[in-house]
Specification:
The protein has helices at 2-10, 17-24, 28-41, 47-58, 64-73, 79-91, 96-108, 115-127, 131-143, 150-162, 166-175, 181-193, 197-209, 216-229, 232-244, 251-263, 267-275, 282-294, 298-310, 317-330, 333-345, 353-365, 369-377, 384-396, 400-413, 418-430, 434-447, 477-493, 501-505, 513-516, 520-531, 549-562; strands spanning 455-460, 463-468, 538-543, 565-569, 574-578, 581-582. By secondary structure, the chain is mostly helical. Among the domains are: 1-76; 280-342, no CATH class; 352-452, Serine Threonine Protein Phosphatase 5, Tetratricopeptide repeat (Alpha Horseshoe); 456-582, no CATH class. It has a six-stranded mixed sheet, sandwiched between helices. The radius of gyration is 30 Å and the shape is elongated. The protein binds zinc ion (ZN) (2 copies).
Length: 588
């Protein structure tokens, strides 16, 4: 390139300065050479030439200082120059300060900013979630009279959602006189990415009611929300919509579909989507492998993992989490060990916390507690997640001493987490140390720690119903309680006896005896059965915490007496209940 410039500089019929700039492209050194040439030939007064030079330089690497100086040296600069510089800087997330610099320069030249100026500035703050700076920009937006500009507002909605401020995002959104599709999408995915899946779906419903046509970006957002909540009906509806409208389904949308079906408990559909994909990437393979994993299908996950490698895809960090946890859920110890060692030796992927958690989980569940403990000891700073995994194994295999050690370590790392207190008291209860149980509970009361709230979700006719323990807020609660009591009577006749152990040993908060009967999953199932149409035999529930032993047992009986398949997704995995047995083999 350098040669070509030199040759054109010395050639008898030199190229025009524009052509030289064009040829130099966004490369600092080459651009500086052209700049020198402009000075030499006296064309460095041309505003349009210098503007072009500055814009090109702006996207070159390590060009901040040069471009800033150059932009200030241009006489009579116009809004085009500054808007372009702000736009280019905002595209490069790391150049946020440049964008602000050009904005200030613009103001000091008395050039009024436009809505383009502000959308770019806001974008530059979004890219790095710079909340404070973005708020300042928002003030300027209002001062300069662009508070009701729909482009600027859409950018603000995206920005606030990206910074985790969904409440403010919603406020801006609600104040919009005219909502563009960009704004709707920003609101849907903003809610979804911040974990407010229910609200994401509500916005999507609102969008439908107002007759706004969703596009594929909307679909990605709402499908991810469906995946979070485990609501299959709406998810399938969106899929049908995509097919009906003949959307261009790319890898991202397909992968979102796989994830949605897998997380909503319909593995067959997930696989159908996967098999139908014309093009796949590591993310889509990983989504399918992880789907098999959370359902406990270790063998299928393994086959797919091998197939993926066969097709020349290298597993990445996330693939290894998916396959290792699949091994853990399916109790495939040898395979897990092998993959864990392949990870570093064959693929050069350094194991992170998640991988170690999987290994401890894998070994611990299989009852190899000593090996699991050694694995933990071999780590520099085992964090809370690692000890939690070990603790889970201790509880499963009723290893009291190791359990206490793990629980105490956990409390030392995260003294404010109420869950750990509950866990530790449960471990003491396991060892019959009731005085310790009292001690821990009192400590908790003293510290005024609140317990996590457990809830279960069920979808009926595309409407999401949320139940928490002892919940009385649902409009049909009387009927639900009556139905549940009747149901509990029926399963008692069939031989169900309350799993007393879970009164003390449950991981979560829903632990008092009288409340066992009204655990959120039982309420949700009762409601689902009440509403179930004759043809549809599967009841699907998603719970945010782990299921307790009593619910697990009761649901086995319920699946039997009602002759229905019940699928429950808890915090860790799926349980498919049918004819009185669960797919997890009572191992969760
Ligand atoms: Zn329960
Ligand atoms: Zn189960």
């Amino acid at each position: 390139m350098e040669d070509s410039i030199n040759s054109s500089l010395s050639s008898p019929s030199p190229s025009t300065p524009y052509e030289l700039l064009q040829r130099a492209g966004p490369r600092l050194k080459q651009l500086q050479q052209v700049h020198a040439y402009l000075i030499k030939t006296g064309t460095n007064r041309s505003r349009s030439l210098l503007t072009k030079l500055a814009i090109l330089a702006c996207s070159a690497r390590n060009s901040s200082t040069y471009t800033r100086k150059l932009s200030l040296s241009i006489t009579n600069p116009d809004s085009y120059l500054f808007n372009s510089l702000i736009r280019v800087s905002s595209k490069l997330g790391s150049r946020r300060n440049d964008a602000v610099f050009y904005y200030n320069a613009m103001l000091s030249c008395f050039i009024p900013p436009s809505n383009y100026t502000f959308t770019s500035l806001i974008k530059s703050c979004s890219a790095v979630s710079a909340l404070r700076q973005g708020r300042c920009v928002h003030c300027h937006v209002v001062i300069h009279g662009f508070g009701l500009d729909s482009y600027v507002q859409a950018a603000l909605v995206t920005f606030y959602a990206k910074c985790g401020e969904v409440g403010i995002a919603r406020k801006v959104f609600d104040e919009m006189p005219e909502r563009s599709l960009v704004a709707w999408n920003a609101m849907v995915s903003g809610y979804e990415q911040n974990g407010f899946a229910k609200q994401a779906i509500e916005v999507f419903m609102l969008m439908r009611d107002e007759g706004v046509e969703p596009d594929s970006a909307t679909c990605v957002g709402v499908l991810s929300a469906c995946a979070q909540l485990g609501v299959l009906e709406l998810g399938s509806w969106v899929h049908d919509y995509i097919v009906e409208r003949k959307f261009d389904v790319d890898v991202v949308l397909n992968t979102t579909l796989i994830n949605m079906y897998a997380r909503c408990g319909d593995l067959k559909k997930a696989r159908e989507v996967f098999d139908g994909m014309k093009q796949r990437n590591v993310v889509s393979w990983t989504a399918m492998i992880s789907g098999y994993g959370i359902h406990g299908y270790g063998k299928e996950a393994m086959e797919l993992y091998e197939l993926m490698k066969h097709y020349g895809f290298s597993p990445n960090v996330i693939t290894f989490v998916a396959i290792l946890s699949a091994c853990a859920h399916a109790g495939m110890v040898d395979e897990g060990r092998r993959i864990f060692s392949d990870m570093t030796t064959k693929y050069g992927v350094k194991p992170g916390v998640e991988h170690h958690v999987c290994m401890v989980d894998l070994l611990g569940r299989a009852g190899l507690l000593n090996e699991a403990y050694n694995h933990v000891q071999g780590l520099k700073n085992p964090g809370a997640a690692i000890w939690t995994a070990l603790l889970g194994a201790c509880k499963l295999h009723k290893n009291f001493d190791l359990g206490v050690e793990a629980a105490e370590k956990l409390l030392a790392i995260e003294p404010e987490d109420s869950g750990h207190y509950v866990t530790l008291s449960n471990v003491y209860a396991l060892g019959g140390k009731m005085e310790k149980v009292e001690f821990i509970r009192n400590k908790m009361i003293k510290k005024k720690l609140k317990k996590n709230v457990g809830y279960s979700i069920i979808e009926v006719d595309q409407k999401v119903h949320l139940f928490s323990m002892g919940d009385k807020s649902h409009p049909e609660m009387r009927e639900i309680y009556r139905y549940l009591d009747e149901l509990m009577g029926r399963i008692s006749e069939a031989g169900y006896v309350t799993a007393q152990e879970s009164v003390l040993h449950e991981v979560e908060e829903e632990e008092r005896e009288y409340a066992l009967r009204y655990h959120s999953e039982k309420l949700a199932i009762a409601f689902g059965l009440m509403k179930a149409k004759n043809g549809c035999t599967t009841i699907r529930i998603a719970k945010n915490l782990r299921m307790c032993e009593d619910c697990h047992l009761a649901i086995k009986f319920i699946s039997c007496v009602t002759n229905r398949e019940i699928i429950v997704r808890d915090k860790l995995r799926f349980h498919h209940f049918r004819d009185g047995v669960c797919s997890c083999g009572d191992y969760w």
